[in-house]
Specification:
The chain is an alpha/beta fold. It has helices at residues 4-19, 48-62, 108-119, 151-156, 245-248, 251-264; strands spanning 35-43, 65-71, 95-101, 124-127, 158-159, 167-173, 187-192, 199-200, 204-214, 217-229, 234-239. The protein has a single domain (4-162, 194-209, 222-282), classed as 3-Layer(aba) Sandwich (Rossmann fold), CATH 3.40.50. It is built from six helices and eleven strands. Strand 3, helix 3 and strand 4 form a beta-alpha-beta unit. Helix 2 packs across helix 6.
Length: 283
């Protein structure tokens, strides 16, 4: 776990190492270099203290990935995340996983800083409450592109404003030909939060829908999708599933998230196979 001071040192060290000729930060030249991933956790309403470690262990067991954690134990809707006010926070990383719950961090300058690496081309993966973070204005209001209200939603590719009670969600893989979902089957979660879809952007492509019965109503929403963000068409994968520890620890969930990481970084082949050297233990 990285605190703010350690985080600053890591960023500086990573940048310096990349300037040195012949330096390989992670492995010797003869080995496949693992993907360096930054996992951001903390904020309201979830057991991030446990989930950050479940994710790290599960993803690293499935792919040639090394995950660094930026975590705060603050459980408010405006957690003091170490990445805030540091737009170079992702320097030296291949991808950032946003798993924070920061609904009331609404300063446009701070949100722009969080988005800067992704606007510059760094892939992103977003889990569960990341979809309800960095809200500027009323999240139920329709998004207008290019406005502060739309900043985070444009990056995600989907606007969500809330969820209903926790009930099982039947997941239906509607695009089984996508490299991320190749070989994956429909399944039903335990009691989970089902996030609504206010708007799905034209840049987004749905992979999985979820059906949840609440009383006499059936909600049918996108729960996993990919997006092309910004002028560099940055690859972004997101899923709204993942409120409870049991879901985060489910091997099917960890498979989905890991494949999202590999796809976003270009290490998943068109037929769904893992790029050589990026499977478990570098296989």
């Amino acid at each position: 776990m990285i605190n703010i001071a350690q985080f600053k040192n890591i960023v500086l060290a990573s940048a310096f190492a990349l300037l040195l000729p012949g330096v390989t930060p992670s492995l010797q030249a003869a080995d496949t270099k693992p993907l360096r991933v930054l996992l951001v956790t903390g904020g309201c309403c979830h057991d991030y203290a446990s989930q950050k470690d479940i994710l790290k262990k599960g993803i690293e067991a499935r792919a040639n990935v090394v995950i660094d954690q930026v975590h705060t134990g603050d459980s408010t809707t405006h957690p003091p995340l170490a990445i805030l006010s540091h737009p170079d926070y992702a320097q030296g990383y291949d991808l950032v996983i946003h798993d924070e719950c920061a609904a009331d961090i609404s300063d446009p300058a701070l949100v722009e800083g969080v988005l800067k690496p992704h606007r510059d081309g760094l892939p992103g993966v977003n889990l569960h409450c990341a979809m309800h973070s960095y809200r500027i204005g009323n999240p139920n209001d329709p998004v207008k592109a290019g406005t502060p209200h739309g900043l985070w939603f444009e990056y995600l590719g989907l606007q969500s404003s809330g969820h209903g009670p926790q009930e099982p969600i039947a997941l239906h893989f509607t695009d089984k030909d996508n490299p991320i979902t190749t070989g994956m089957s429909d399944w039903t979660t335990i009691h989970e939060e089902h996030y609504n879809n206010v708007h799905v952007f034209d840049t987004a492509h749905a992979l999985v829908y979820g059906l949840q019965v609440v009383g006499t109503k059936t909600n049918d929403f996108v729960v996993a999708w990919v997006n092309e963000y910004g002028p560099k068409k940055t690859r972004v994968f997101s899923t709204t599933i993942g409120h409870n520890n049991e879901t985060v620890a489910d091997p099917r969930y960890l498979d989905l998230v890991t494949r999202g990481v590999l796809w976003a970084t270009g290490h998943l082949e068109a037929d769904g196979t893992l790029a050589k050297g990026y499977g478990p233990h570098g296989n």
